[in-house]
């Protein structure tokens, strides 16, 4: 049995600003294979270093979980870009009863504190950030997951354009499983791999897509899991990395789809209208056609 960790790190904080202790266990849901911060025993850690997420509910949830995991007097370092929650970090930690030392460097706010003997409001923040069933979506969801609190209009447009699919396929960047649920409405689908970088999304998708033909993979869809010879791929690929627009991200998803499809296999893709995906589609696929557009989105069918 491996020894219990004494420190944890959430995400990838710049080491020159907030170095994590050697041997710190990674607990980010966006890094496949990481431990879950939710599963760390209360009052068991000496230190936690957090690259705080931008969403308010998600950020307070992570900070509360980190404080819960710390032993009294344990060290918490949290940082975020000023315009992405960093300006509110100190106030949020003080609301939990922490005394905070706050500095700024390289457009980041860096907060250092120790866990008080009796933090205030942890359970309320944890409850607010937990997975929950959304009556409006009809799905299990969690703050921080893509489009967690509203239907994504791009996915809705793609579902409206999709014909019944057949054979073996994959939903790359599956999120909550909205596309997969629509795909599996076709009885001709044999199996479907749901792949996402976000553990929380995969966990929700397991609850939302209870179909024996579905398989779930917490992986970076650009590199895994091992797939080959698929009849179809559907996707609404991400185009932001660490909050910044990255056109190469969606292009990498398209290249991955091409790699896992059989000859004659089909890709169905939705993207924001301004994203330059036509070039990579034309270079890789024998035939690519615009099938629908509206609300700032476009849907393509591309056949290998």
Can you describe what's shown?
This protein has 304 residues and is α/β, with parallel strands linked by helices. The mean pLDDT is 94. Helices cover 26% and strands 33% of the residues. The protein has 2 domains: 7-129, Vaccinia Virus protein VP39 (Rossmann fold, 3-Layer(aba) Sandwich), CATH 3.40.50.150; 132-303, Vaccinia Virus protein VP39 (Rossmann fold), CATH 3.40.50. A 7-stranded mixed beta sheet has the order 11-10-9-12-15-17-16, with helices on both faces. Strand 7 (132-134) and strand 8 (139-141) form a beta hairpin. The chain is elongated and about 60 Å long.
CATH architecture classification name of the largest domain: 3-Layer(aba) Sandwich
Q: If you average the pLDDT, what whole number results?
A: 94
Topology as a string of helices (H) and strands (E) = EEEHEHEEHEEHEHEHEEEEHEHEE
Count of all domains:
2
**If you compute it from the alpha carbons, what radius of gyration comes out, rounded to the nearest whole angstrom?**
21 Å
Low-confidence stretches: none
Largest sheet descriptor: 7 strands, mixed
The rounded distance between the terminal residues' Cα atoms is: 48 Å
How much of the sequence lies in strands comes to: 25-35%
Helix content: 25-40%
- Given the C-alpha coordinates, what overall shape results? elongated
Number of helices: 8
Largest sheet strand order: 11-10-9-12-15-17-16
- The structural class is alpha/beta
The CATH superfamily of the largest domain appears as Vaccinia Virus protein VP39
Which fold name corresponds to the CATH topology of the largest domain?
A: Rossmann fold
Number of strands: 17
């Amino acid at each position: 049995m491996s020894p219990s960790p004494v420190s944890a790190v959430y995400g990838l904080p710049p080491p020159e600003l907030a170095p994590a202790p050697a041997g710190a266990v990674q607990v980010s849901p966006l890094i496949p294979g990481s431990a879950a911060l939710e599963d760390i025993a209360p009052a068991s850690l000496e230190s936690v270093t957090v690259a705080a997420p931008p969403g308010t509910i998600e950020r307070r949830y992570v900070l509360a979980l980190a404080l819960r995991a710390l032993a009294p007097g344990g060290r918490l370092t949290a940082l975020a870009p000023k315009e992405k929650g960093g300006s509110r970090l100190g106030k949020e930690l003080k609301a939990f009863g922490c005394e905070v030392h706050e500095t700024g460097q390289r457009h980041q706010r860096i907060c250092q504190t120790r866990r008080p003997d009796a933090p205030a409001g942890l359970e309320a923040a944890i409850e607010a950030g937990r997975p929950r069933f959304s009556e409006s979506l009809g799905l299990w969801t969690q703050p921080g997951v893509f489009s967690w609190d509203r239907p994504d209009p791009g996915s809705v447009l793609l579902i409206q354009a999709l014909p019944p699919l057949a054979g073996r396929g994959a939903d790359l960047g599956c999120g909550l499983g909205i596309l997969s649920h629509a795909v599996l409405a076709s009885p001709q689908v044999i199996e479907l791999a749901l792949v996402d970088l976000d553990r929380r999304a995969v966990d929700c998708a397991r609850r939302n897509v209870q179909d024996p033909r579905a398989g779930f993979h917490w992986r970076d869809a650009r590199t895994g899991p091992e797939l080959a010879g698929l009849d179809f791929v559907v996707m609404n690929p991400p185009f932001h990395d660490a909050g910044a627009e990255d056109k190469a991200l969606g292009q990498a998803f398209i290249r991955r789809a091409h790699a896992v499809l059989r000859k004659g296999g089909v890709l169905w893709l939705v993207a924001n209208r301004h994203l330059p995906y036509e070039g990579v589609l034309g270079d890789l696929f024998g035939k690519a056609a615009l099938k629908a557009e509206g609300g700032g989105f476009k849907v393509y069918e591309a056949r290998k």
